[in-house]
Amino acid sequence: MPIRLLPDYLINQIAAGEVVEHGASVVKETVENALDAGADQIIIDVVDGGRTLINVVDNGSGMGQEDLANCIMRHATSKLPDDNLSHINFMGFRGEALPSIASVSDMTIDTCNGTDENGWHLDCNTGEIRPSDWQSGTRIRVQNLFAKTPARLKFLRSDRAETMAVLDVVKRLAMARTDVGFVLNNKWRFPKDQPLLERIAAVMGDDVVGRMHAVDVSSGSTTGMRLTGYISDPTLRRASSVDQYLFVNGRPVKDKVLVGALRAAYMDVMHAREFPLCALYLTLPPEHVDVNVSPTKNDVHFLEPTHVRSFIIKVLRDVLSQTMVDEKTTVASDNNKMSFTGPIVSRPQFSPYTSVARQPDNGRQELFATQPNSCESKKNSAPESVENIFYSQPLGRAVGQIANKYIIAATVDSLVVVDQHAAHERITYEKMRTHTIKVQPLLTPIVVHLKSEDITAILDVADELRDSGLVLDSFGDDAVAIFEKPSDWDMDWVSVLHDIADEVREYGHSSILKEKLHLKLANHACHHSVRAGQKLNYEQMDALLRDIEKTERGGECNHGRPVYKFIPLKDVDGWFER
Q: Domain span at residue 311?
């Protein structure tokens, strides 16, 4: 068949297939154009999920008559003044969005640049431009989406689902630009110049208040990377990645490197099927990241993805590793040297909050709390000075135990409930994690035959695997040989290496071995820690509290469950109407 040039209308419709998937795509492209035009207030309205109407109004710089005529030409853009694709500092730049949208809808544009005597109106169906009374900024009005391509129209979801997709786009752009005000359907509002924490709560929900940790770390002058934003406490999680907002040089992305780094950072504080919340902003030199990857601009390519991933993991783990007590300011460090090392035989103990008895009084049974004798009281109480110090500690002083599962402690202004098994499990895990991985050199290497592409993928991450105790190299053209492996690890290495290769090809890295190591340590810690149902004496309980205060990631066990909960005394006062 002869080769022919396609007509412009068909070229635009093909491009629309890449750029315009549904109404949310139209909103994304038009709002990004508004941001590039300097708008700080953007109003979006959609009807029927966008299939009937999408209306975007901004107060940006607007366009003159000539720019208006050019804006619907293919590959026409104002975003590359020096024609350098290595330095892209705009949200949009490809010049495909507006002509693509116009090719599958009825689109009109009203605009005014503030210098012409009047505004301008463009009918994209006819190309006619005429003067209008539009006074400032730009309005893009898209009607009858996909009416010109009915095959695409039938693949749109319900109006509600399409509206929620539009809302997701607006939320991500609102998180990218807190200095800009956004209004969607006069229902969802994000005010201009809203503090980031307030916008996070507005986007993610009120349950994030007080449960987000600040991030602000630079890598230094060599790579020029900086990571800022907020990540959630490990006990705050979602069943999906819906509330993970990731940005590269101000651009919302769904990048595999960033997602993988986030997952790795939370690996030992959250279950694999749960997802943390975040608003993370990575900035790096434009020449170190390629945003010209896809028409939708959701994906990016990093020049050094391994360095980016390692930097993010370290930063986030450092934030999550902050302990309750800085060793330099531990008040009781010299007064209380005991450390919890595991269960010991507990002496008979008395808790004035739980022990009750019945005594006869004038023929009636009265309920009253049993009081300790003086000897027992002295035996179970610390000197007054140490007692006061205990109450001032972050987790306070142990005052009892419930069901031999939970330690009840008191601070100066709160009651604290501590899960004794979860607490000791985290302490045990962190002590084990700091030990060097034991590696077993093999007298006879384990040879695993693989496809050539699997071998290439595995060798690309050989250094990462070495850090996890697995030393391997190529063995001919169709195999790799394992020369060293983690001690006591007997597993199906063929299956493991296949999984590693698949993960490398998908994400550019592999965390399978680290996850397996985490599970091994977590299981060991779980089986060698204080159990629920085990009775502890006061010295053991207090020692456990002091240790968890100094333990990294001490607020959660290895499976992501909370270790302690605070109950403010003012709440207790409220219960009793005090």
A: 196-320
The secondary structure of residue 145, as a DSSP letter, is T
Convert the pLDDT of each residue in 367-376 to its tens digit: 223 333 333 4
Looking at the structure, do residues 441 and 568 belong to the same domain, yes or no? no
> What is the CATH classification number for the domain harbouring 229?
3.30.230.10
Considering the domain architecture, whether residues 143 and 225 belong to the same structural domain is answered as: no
Kindly write down the DSSP assignment for every residue of 506-526, as one continuous string: HHSS--HHHHHHHHHHHHHHH
20 with 134, same domain: the answer is yes
Domain count for the chain: 4
CA of residue 188 relative to chain centroid, distance: 23
Sheet holding 439-449, edge to edge: 439-449, 479-486, 471-474
Burial class (CB in 10 A: 0-12, 13-18, 19+), 496: middle
The three-state (H, E, C) secondary structure of 277-322, written as one string: CEEEEEECCHHHEECCCCCCCCCCEECCHHHHHHHHHHHHHHHHCC
Q: What is the pLDDT of residues 295-317, one digit of tens each?
A: 566 778 888 888 899 899 999 99
Taking 70 as the threshold, does the pLDDT of residue 338 lie above it?
no
SS3 at position 560? coil
The residue from 320, 336, 351 where one domain ends is 320
Confidence of residue 336 (pLDDT cuts 50, 70, 90): very low
Indicate whether 130 and 232 sit together in one domain: no
pTM of the model: 0.75
Distance CA 462, CA 329 (A): 42
- The beta-carbon contacts of 122-130 under 8 Å, at least 24 apart in sequence, are 122/68, 122/69, 122/72, 124/72, 124/98, 127/69, 127/72, 129/65, 129/68, 129/69
Q: Are residues 47 and 160 in the same domain?
A: yes
Same-domain status, 179 and 150: yes
Q: List phi, psi (to 5°) of 248.
A: -120, 120
Asked if residue 451 is part of any domain, the answer here is yes
CA distances from 229 to 175, 281, 363, 490 (A): 10, 6, 69, 41
The reply to whether 73 and 166 lie within a common domain is yes
Contacts of 507 (CB under 8 A, 6+ apart): 256, 257, 259, 260
Q: Which among 356, 321, 390, 365 has a CA at the least distance from the CA of 539?
A: 390
Contact indicator for 88, 297 with CB cutoff of 8 Å:
no
Q: What is the four-CA torsion angle of 536, 542, 546, 551, rounded to 10 degrees?
A: 20
